[in-house]
Specification:
It contains four helices and three strands; from the N terminus they run αβααββα. By secondary structure, the chain is mainly α. Helix 2 packs antiparallel against helix 3 and helix 3 packs across helix 4. It comes from Azoarcus indigens.
């Protein structure tokens, strides 16, 4: 009789440990990341890059030897167009959160993280 009780007690403790570990894992890898929302202001990053591009082009138009600067500006725009989608794909993996456009979120919450600065750094030329 005593061995049977010890067997059931051990079985109950193992079951309790497995359930507790499962709940902890669920909380760590599923629930908490879902609570954090990263927001990015893509329009702000785009406008800043567009202003930089426009400034280079307007400066080159006033100079007679501007072909090199014009090619530099076009190369910069092409690099930005390639880096932006890649940077947007990397952000959710890096922060471990859902990333949305800032305009898609009604208002900031304690669980909202602004990732616009990180996006800007990713699309800048090295």
């Amino acid at each position: 009789m005593k061995a049977s009780v010890l067997h059931w007690l051990a079985h109950g403790l193992v079951t309790l440990f497995v359930v507790a570990a499962s709940l902890a894992a669920y909380d760590r890898w599923v629930l908490r990341p879902a609570l954090v929302i990263g927001v990015v202001d893509v329009a702000e990053v785009y406008r800043a890059k567009e202003a930089e591009f426009t400034q280079i082009l307007t400066e080159t138009l006033s100079q007679p030897h501007s072909e090199e600067d014009r090619q530099k500006a076009l190369s910069m725009a092409k690099t930005f167009a390639q880096r932006l989608p890649a940077a947007l794909d990397e952000l959710p993996r890096e922060c471990g959160c859902l990333v949305l456009l800032k305009t898609a979120v009604a208002g900031p919450t304690p669980n909202t993280v602004d990732l616009t600065t990180q996006l800007r750094r990713k699309v800048e030329a090295p």
